[in-house]
């Protein structure tokens, strides 16, 4: 199994790049999203959950993500959690992810965790300007994650930006390939897809 890590700041285009690679690679591929592994905090009220720092590594159950990658590498399926961003909670249901020739793992902090980092055969960092990422995030969070403009603004200032500078941006140094701009970068996406096709022939 080839394990590909795709990191980058929030709104950088990780999901879009992942989709573009999946379309180009002619092989069965599985996907694990770091976003699915946010810790469940049902003991907190909705207001308290809305104030949690979701951009610090402690907010994510990385031990479970690491365990799931290792299980898939052994050829066994895993039950990936499903996260509800509107209520900041895990759902009761899970998604079964089966092993495949290629495993893509996507998330803002996946290169910031040494034990996780060493599981990747190829590391891609999607590098998009901060202003563009913020504009995308405002639209995405208001349209898809049930957020108000004021809440996105406050969260960005209090936690998203400082954690990006402390954890996400420095993790770029561990990437093998940096894809500027994200989804629209067809040359970068083609190069990654070609490399994957080549690795599949070995
Ligand atoms: N190249 C692009 N141009 C315009 N909008 C984009 C582009 N890439 C992504 N988006 C939009 O920006 C938002 C965030 O993109 P996404 O791929 O989900 O980023 P990430 O997974 O890094 O948070 C989505 O609504 C997506 O449709
Ligand atoms: N309850 C939550 C959990 C996470 N977030 C934000 O999600 C961002 C990461 O997701 P991307 O798809 O943008 O990579 C991260 O920056 C968290 O702030 C949230 O808002 N609420």
UniProtKB/TrEMBL annotation:
The keyword Protease does not apply. GO terms for cellular component: cytoplasm. InterPro entries: P-loop_NTPase, PRK/URK, Uridine_kinase-like. CDD domains: UMPK. It catalyses: uridine + ATP = UMP + ADP + H(+); cytidine + ATP = CMP + ADP + H(+). This is Uridine kinase. Belongs to the uridine kinase family. Its main location: cytoplasm. GO terms for biological process: CTP salvage; UMP salvage. It holds the Pfam family PRK. Its EC number is 2.7.1.48. It is found in: Cytoplasm. Keywords: ATP-binding, Cytoplasm, Kinase, Nucleotide-binding, Transferase. Signal peptide: none annotated. Residues 3-187 form the Phosphoribulokinase/uridine kinase domain. Pathway: Pyrimidine metabolism; CTP biosynthesis via salvage pathway; CTP from cytidine: step 1/3; Pyrimidine metabolism; UMP biosynthesis via salvage pathway; UMP from uridine: step 1/1. GO terms for molecular function: ATP binding; uridine kinase activity.
